[in-house]
What does this fold into?
Amino acid sequence: MLSVLAAGALRAEPPRVLFTADGERTVVEVRGLEPDRLAELRRTPPADWTRLLMVHTEEASLAPGLPPLMGSYSIEADAIRFTPRFPLASGVPYVASWHDPNAAGEPVGARFEQSRAELPPSTTLTGIFPSGAQVPENLLRIYLQFSAPMSQGRAHDHIRLLDEWGDPVDGPFVAPERELWSPDGTRLTLFFDPGRIKRGVGPNAEVGPPLRAGASYRLEVDHEIPDARGVPLVRDYFKELSVVPPDREQPRTEEWRLTPPESPTAEVRLDFPEPLDHGLLHGLLVVLDASDMAVEGRTTVHPGEIAWSFEPHNGWGKGIYRIRVATLLEDLAGNSLERPFEVVLDSADWDADDGPRYMDLTFGLPSRRP
It folds into this structure.
């Protein structure tokens, strides 16, 4: 049941801002608008909606410049509606405000907090990637994979990187305005500060890299990080990291080993001489048939991120297939198939708008003997 702590307009007359239930999802609605104004708002470009109706956590609303919650906007009968991308967390106060530049008076708003349900913890941290024990000194990303959607905006408060003496590493990760969650809210990307990774300038020259070759570290995720229901994790989690010298060489497809399927239902497999980026391996390789159509199937990234395989749902047919690999694919240090990481940072003539480039690796079923 929804528990509204305070809702109310900052002025006595309509419109009104309300937190309301739509099935199991809490949404925000602006009601009491005149029909002519609603008709005008229907023509409003989608990009303008975040300036009209904004929803924040109460904590974020007190810090100017922090972005509002992500979600979708629509006009439902006589109301403007905002549907959050992820469920509102229990026990977290939210505020919503309606800023109509065509209306006189102050903005109107509402405050809402859903009572914390007495639910047992059930969400777990199912993976920390890279999954291997050894990482390069210039490691660029860490992925945290959870078993269910998580609350967003406060994850960094529950994540620590400790050195081998148990002391916290100062500011190892970038703190973006929006945390870097996957669309389904189950995977968080942590970026090490690129300014501390790039050699010889700025933070790297002043304080050095967050990780140092020859040392060991411990990444800790405490159980108080809330899932989308506002419920803590089942337990605390940690991962030990052993740091090896930096990797500044590009991956080379010539060094990959492609094993074609042995039968119409078998997998095709790629083995790599070094670990590659776990998240990018899931998104930057696609299998195409002879008609350039994507083959539907199941992708597997194997432990240590040193192998990738694909098994088709409906089996392989005759003819040649291709594994199309985007050259944006990177190793653990951000070196892509296209260029080393530090060249990307230095290059003045590289245009990110050039669009993706691809490399094709071909294979087919083995020939059958008569």
Remarks:
- The chain is about 10% helix and 30% strand.
- The first strand starts at residue 6 and ends at 8.
- Confidence is low (pLDDT under 50) at residues 1-12, 344-350.
- Residues 150 and 228 are 4 Å apart (CA to CA).
